[in-house]
Write a structure and sequence with these properties.
Number of strands: 0
Radius of gyration: 22 Å
Helix content: over 70%
Number of helices: 21
Shape: globular
Largest sheet: none
Distance between the termini: 33 Å
Amino acid sequence: MKKNNPRALLPILVFLVLYLGLGLTFEYGMKIPMGFYNIPIVIAFLAAILVACIQNPELSFDRKLEIMGQGVGDKNIITMLLIFLVAGTFVGVVGRSSAESVAYFMLSIIPARFAVAVLFVVSCFVSTAMGTSVGTITLITPIAVSVASASGFGVPLCVGAVMGGAMFGDNLSFISDTTIAACNGQGCAMKDKFRENFGIALPAALATLAVILVLSFRTPMAGAVVEPYNLVQIIPYVLVLIGGIAGFNVFLVLLAGIVSGSAIMLFTGETAATDLLAHMGSGAAGMFETSMVAILVAAMCALIRVYGGFDALLNLIRRVFRGRRGGQLGMGLLVGVMDIATANNTVAIVMANPIAREMGQEYGISPRKCASLLDTFSCVFQGVIPYGAQMLVAISAAAELGHAVSAFDIMPCLIYPYLLLASSLVFIFLVPEKKKC
């Protein structure tokens, strides 16, 4: 097959033009609310695969199907798909009501002056436990607006704290689709990626907390938020979090979460026995689009690799980024560009995975560091782009409560993503590579 063939990258370009172009037109040209997410990403990828199948006519269509089948049948892809579905089942069982209880519990025992810091910490915990930044923002943003209304804090600062905490957990959670995609794409254990990531995320989180506290002491207080809470339902999340950090098999950890969650939801009367299976099914169904994207990307990338597209991209990266540290920066920027184009950090990671894996081998970067860089840089970019789901959901939730804020009001208050980027650069250029994987 051809090597170093830039034309083989055409399917990726077709996807980006379709998805990004139509998304921006819908969102900003036609002013359609959440317009970027009205674009069916699966259709955009199917169009890209069609282009890939038309290319390289010397290969028969049957041979191209065989290549795509081999790409989809990779062990890491199959593992990723199964974890997606089991993680979705877990979220479907336990629901998301415990997040509000955690927030109201902490707000009830901590002085009002530290309310924004509480919002950040709660969002960090909830997103790490739930594995979803969008879900966390959906649940905690109304509480953030209530905090702003009852105190002297501004809505953008409160919402920015929630978004920052949500991205912290999205980056670290063992059941986050970004973690699952990065770890299985690079072939590393989740606990190893977590340890690598934690050294980047923790300094950024502590620095964010310090900045929030400084801002809090400069703001006059007016009141507090008091609501009822129930913490029993948080137990399954804690079990999953502890099991993941301890390094237990992710399937066993999620199974323990599903069993304990089912028992608690039935015992507390939050879910009827007849509804439990339906909730499991809806949770798994929520991961179908993500799973389908993983399949389509694997098929498309298999063809691009055989056509010589990855060789061309790697040659370009070699010329621009030199040495191991340069390779790490190049990998981070690669997934960042993918995220800017797709406005979806999971899709960005899935698309960047095969290229990053070859970059890791080329530059001598360990799989766990590759996974960490992909997840971290994708969360940095996803956390600040004004057309990302996280930002749009936060704006929508605030507007429903009568507080109209724009993305450009919130962006200066996104302290954590900016500090996470700074921490990532320190991690790349100052922290030496560990020898053992």
